[in-house]
UniProtKB/TrEMBL annotation:
Pfam families: HTH_3. This is DNA-binding transcriptional regulator, XRE-family HTH domain. InterPro entries: Cro/C1-type_HTH, Lambda_DNA-bd_dom_sf. GO terms for molecular function: DNA binding. PROSITE patterns: HTH_CROC1. Keywords: DNA-binding.
Amino acid sequence: MQRNFILELRKKHSLSQQEFADLIFVSRQLVSNWEQDKSEPSLENKKLIATLFNMDIDELDVYNKNNHLKNSEIKKEKIKQAFLQSLVRTQNTLETLQDIAKESNLKKNEVQLYFLNSEDVLIDIIKNIEKSIYIQLNHSLHEQSDSLARVQNRIFPVLYQQQDNIRILYQNAISRAYWNEVLENVFNQIIDKELQQRQLTHLLIDRSFQIYLVSRQLMSFIETWMRHPTSPSLRDIQLLFKQFSYYSTKILLEN
């Protein structure tokens, strides 16, 4: 049982440590120890707490588990934000886990509960963005739209929402390489699927090279957007992309 659970339960019912202790027939010091994670309530104490606050003991454990997960997510987010800030400083390398722990005001062993090394932190950040992209793409599976429209209407909102983090990824050579690899894979899949659906058999250029060219143009547009000092609105970005793709990318998909 985590200390925050006892603390949260006590505060929820506006009880002092002494009042809480009196209700379950223990000392105030013991309650303090629970809240400081120095010890855990015994099974009998858990049963008494569950009865007192009209909770099932299983519900009590689930409540505690959820609270623990929430605290874990907060710590993970602190670590990731500290790591992102380190990318701005390093540019060509990744800081050590020790440096990231110091930046996030955590101990190294606390950081190691979530990440084995700096590369793990980077991968986690990028994977979360990638996951959001694929969720949006899956929602558009039954839409009657071409690949460029899916990029514009489904992927761009995700990139816009995550642009603060993505802008930082472009500032470090290592993170930029990881991010570009993920982005290229996403675009390759979208473009390849469209070419299959169109069943184009008489291509002017090799199909794999065609996919590569289109992906590179899309990636170039996104990198230019993310590296520019101003931040246009999502609508402006989508309109610019529509014009850009009409004069450059679209012609490659139609030949």
